[in-house]
Automatic annotation (TrEMBL):
The keyword Cytoplasm applies. Residues 79-326 form the SAM-dependent methyltransferase TRM5/TYW2-type domain. Pfam families: TRM5-TYW2_MTfase (PF02475), Trm5_N (PF18093), TYW2_N_2 (PF25133). Keywords: Cytoplasm, Methyltransferase, S-adenosyl-L-methionine, Transferase, tRNA processing. This is SAM-dependent methyltransferase TRM5/TYW2-type domain-containing protein. It comes from Natronorubrum tibetense GA33. GO terms for biological process: tRNA N1-guanine methylation. One of its GO terms (molecular function) is tRNA methyltransferase activity. One of its GO terms (cellular component) is cytoplasm. PANTHER family: TRNA (GUANINE(37)-N1)-METHYLTRANSFERASE (PTHR23245:SF36), TRNA METHYLTRANSFERASE (PTHR23245).
Length: 326
């Protein structure tokens, strides 16, 4: 079957392979091939490849030699990959240990296995983890050409939202002023800055802000990122009428911060407002809350109503892209 591949001259192949591996972009399910003096490296995400590399569609062989956890267990286990870590959500300790052993015995490039030991809790939305393999809960995650260091025991991070973050990032223009009101380790801020935006990230979690600063340095955008450890409501007046774009990814309680969002918004500002609502009316409560906060000072236009994912039975995690024009 045809899959996206990076094509490079054979003499540049090893350097390119290392670059793609460092960005976690190589598709391990297919073989790297050589033809007519070129190396073809199968990749997972063409959009995340740097502009200097050529991406082509090409028939490649599936890799038959790779042993997966499913091969060892006889059934496909459920886990998420984050960097070189496998994240489990198993109530049965024995089952969790079986999966951890299978992950380590497999050919997957995973070194750490963590099992969720609590629900997300507290203002900083962190959880406890059982370490089944590896030394600690710190990982380095690569996403759409960006690199994020983080400690899962001290910050909140969801790899499931990568596609949504990339959707929003593609809307950002060079020279914009963007502010993430609940920035975490920077999964919105860092790619925004890489597109040329001047960015501010605010979070109450001191550890998250430390990682945000580190990640800005890792990705070469420290000069375009300001990281602030505080409640956004306490600093909104400092950035009044400043933002061209606001991210409000605190879906259980973003409505409590809409007064601050209106303070931050410039004359023409797009808000990415995340919410969790019942499937019968997933967008209505958020839209009404935004209009109540912003009108009549702003003209409010809902540009996108998007279901991000299912959150719980009959509940949806949604996003409203809303333009405010003074």
């Amino acid at each position: 079957m045809e899959v996206p591949c990076v094509r490079v001259p054979r003499e540049e192949g090893e350097a390119t392979r290392r670059e793609l591996a460092d960005a976690d972009l190589i598709d391990d399910e297919y073989e790297i091939s050589v033809a007519e003096g070129s190396l073809y490296v199968p990749i997972t995400d063409p959009d995340a490849v740097s502009d200097g590399l050529e991406v082509v569609a090409r028939p490649v062989e599936e890799r038959e030699t790779q042993t997966t956890p499913a091969d060892i267990l006889g059934a496909e286990p459920s886990y998420e990959r984050l960097g070189r870590a496998a994240l489990l959500d198993e109530d049965d300790d024995e089952r969790a240990r079986e999966i951890a052993d299978a992950v380590l015995e497999s050919d997957l490039p995973l070194e750490t296995v963590l099992n969720k030991a609590s629900k997300v809790k507290g203002e900083t939305r962190i959880r406890d983890w059982d370490i089944l393999a590896g030394d600690d809960t710190e990982v380095v995650h690569r996403e759409y050409g960006c690199e994020f260091a983080l400690d899962l025991a001290s910050v909140y991070f969801s790899p499931r939202l990568a596609t949504e973050r990339h959707r929003v990032t593609k809307q950002v223009s060079d020279g914009e002023r963007a502010l993430d009101m609940f920035a975490g380790v920077g999964p919105f801020v860092i790619p925004f800055a890489k597109r040329g935006a001047e960015c501010v990230g605010v979070d109450v979690n001191e550890d998250a802000i430390s990682y945000l600063r580190e990640n800005a340095r890792r990705n070469g955008v420290a000069d375009r990122v300001t990281a602030i450890c505080d409640d956004i409501r306490a600093v909104a007046d400092e950035y009044a009428n400043w933002a061209d774009r606001l991210v409000m990814n605190l879906p259980h309680s973003a409505d409590e911060f809409l007064e601050s969002a209106v303070t931050l918004a410039g004359d023409d500002c797009v808000i990415h407002y995340y919410d969790i609502q019942h499937e019968d009316d997933p967008f209505g409560p958020g839209e009404r809350a935004i209009r109540d906060a912003a009108e009549p000072e702003y003209e409010v236009t809902v540009e996108t109503r998007r279901t991000v994912r299912s959150y719980a039975p009959h509940e949806l995690n949604v996003c409203l892209d809303v333009r405010l024009e003074r």
